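Troubleshooting log. The previous run stalled partway through. Resubmitting the same two chains, unchanged.
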Amino acid sequence: MSQETATAEGGFWSDSGKTGIGSWIFSTDHKRIGLMYLYCVLSFFMVGVLLGVLIRLELIAPGPTIVTAQTYNALFTVHGVVMIFLFIIPGIPASFGNLVLPIQLGARDVAFPRVNLFSWWLYVIGAVIVLVSLFTGGGAPDTGWTFYVPFSARTTTNVSLAVFGVFILGFSSILTGINFVTTIHRMRAPGMNWTRIPLFTWSLYATAWVQILATPIIAITLLLVVTERVLGLGLFDPSRGGDPIMFQHMFWIYSHPAVYIMILPGMGVISDIIPVFSRKPIFGYKMIAFSSLAIAAAGSAVWGHHMYTSGMSDLGVMVFSFLTFLVAIPSAIKVFNWVSTMYKGSISLEAPMLFALSFILLFSIGGLSGLILGAASTDIHVHDTHFVVGHFHYVMFGGTGFAFFAAAHYWLPKYFGRRYEEKPAIIGWVLMFIGFNVLYFTMQVLGMEGMPRRYYDYLPEFARLNFVATVGSWIMVAGILIVLWNLWRGLLKGEPFTGNPWGGASLEWSIPTPPPTENFEEDPVVTHGPYDFKGAGVP
Amino acid sequence: MFLFGACLVLLVGITATMIFFVVRYRRSKNPEPTSQVSGSPLLEVIWTLLPTILVMGMFYYGWTSYLSLRTVPKNAMQVKAEARMWSWDFIYQNGKHSPKLVVPVGRPVQVNLESEDVIHGFYVPAFRIKRDVVPGMKNHVWFVASSPGSYDLFCSQYCGTGHSAMITTVEAVPADKFEAWLNEKAAEGGAAKGKALLESHGCLGCHSLDGSTKVGPTFKGLYGSQVKVTRGGKAETVKVDEAYLRESILNPGAAIVEGFPPIMPKSDIPEGDLKVMVEFLEGEK
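Second attempt completed without errors. Output:
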């Protein structure tokens, strides 16, 4: 962090006159908090990537390759926990949400700046506890990130501490959600009515409600797992009147809506980037904003589609399958509107736009493979196979991950006052895109052929495709490294970035670069919509 | 297949339109946007209704074919499957145990799934069937093997260290062969019985007889050898004798062999079986 403060200059980096680590970790400035989240989530992203590479390396050939079965099980568990709870869930909302949301609304900060700082501290404490759990007690958890009982209640590994860490992370998420909802309701500048809120902030609004309403359920569920392990209450143990299926319901009541906590902000990023790089107003603004709320609402009632094979009643299967297909409708509406926005526009294929367009393609593949999983009969075959692993990586990484990189290339120059080089960004993107598809499409094929997930070893007939997938992981990681290295170097030492080179019409493009601590020199009065490029006077 | 076809058409359509727009309206060719249209209620209605009809079709198709997966024919043969970390035991109505699921070709088979410990999953990709095996719950699957052969059977629900080793096969054989197999008596006493017991109690899922190392140490040459174990936190060397074998089977957590994780589950094995098994192990030089 201190290295950055030394090179980035102006605006909130220096105008308060405060420097040093204390001016960051005790700062209530939403921009500094956003950047601290960004550094944390990127660090954990790299940890997750490293673990993922190790998993793929173990699977390059049948039989034991580089680690033991126990280590492998810990690898995929920790990969999941780190990527989900430490990277994707806080990824876009806490980092880019903090950086961008107050400015897009015309506010000087979020509604509760100190609570915002407290959320960051809770995040750090939760993350440290999760990390400590890997190296203490019975060793890294080996339950999978789903912590299914009765296995999670029996295993001797350090599940209790890891689960407690996730419990604390949940509070960070809830507080950020409350902060954003309040900010959006109460802190809008004069003239910023609900239909002038940029779609990125709209998506964070829908996300924040899910964070507030769903997260307490996972907190309670995880506490119950701890009581089961420590006290042996028998809540989930059938021989003592408990029910392991009840755990699955409670777990997914949060963890499925959590998928929308992860993907909705990504959709928001895309909705902001595509109009700017097409120089055209977003097509169907109200439908996109409304579909975010529809996804958040309908998505809260589909958790049972993770459990078609669990022994849930057939009526349950029917209801959850039906509701799952309903969620597909608002998602499809969004995709159609994004594509239509480009119609008769003037399209510039710069790095943020390339990431945004690949988001649409990868998210569509992920979403459509989701329909196959949502249909009751086809799910039976591909459930718990590599098809599911491929599917959720398409949505989570091809969707949210690519949106994260789109946001980084789009907004970060604004905050650093320097920009990255275009060419390495595009080379990195090409490698990421190719490697991604080689890796995860192959996984989907493996799943259709019947290879179950979380398998340390596999039958010889799966060997060739597993080898291909592992090679794909190397190509993708090479792309990620180039992209991050290029961002890192460019933001610290690159060409100066000033003004509004991309021609954005939302408020963050109307203030100095980097933004001053108070964001606006005088309170803005909003006179045009976020995609009204003529009204904003940009060329 | 209707579902895959519909998904593929949609995907190709979206991608082609996107690429067409990018090429047609790229900035070098179209320096100024030629339209500032920001919406169309008619189009929104169309592309809300079309996906709605499509997904409702998919839902209906998926649901009706799911029902046929759940409706067991009345004449189905009943087999009980007991899953445990990390092996399968199939029990037939005449009491016969088998580590492989042997079934007659052409006859519906209903497998009743029971778990002794954690959640497992019964998955036969060739028959497109899968069902979790949940402790304390009665789940079932059914299938017909229409041609003879050997089909892979996987555990699909993650269950710990030996999860990926918890695989066996469905052996579909002609009806007359099946009857003969079903009624053949296990040899009384001796090596064959010992081996059969090790199989049916699930020992061979983790301990090999041929010297290879699986999740746990091999049985080959075990008896009479010196092994390094950790007992109550202290390292010691013991000679493998009958007492050690009995302790390790009945109370596996007491002494852990160096280099292996302390994960073997406890089991209640009747004295009669235990005696035969230990005798068998003593002979495995």
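Takeaways: Chain A touches chain B through 88 residues (CB under 8 Å). Chain A has a mean pLDDT of 90.
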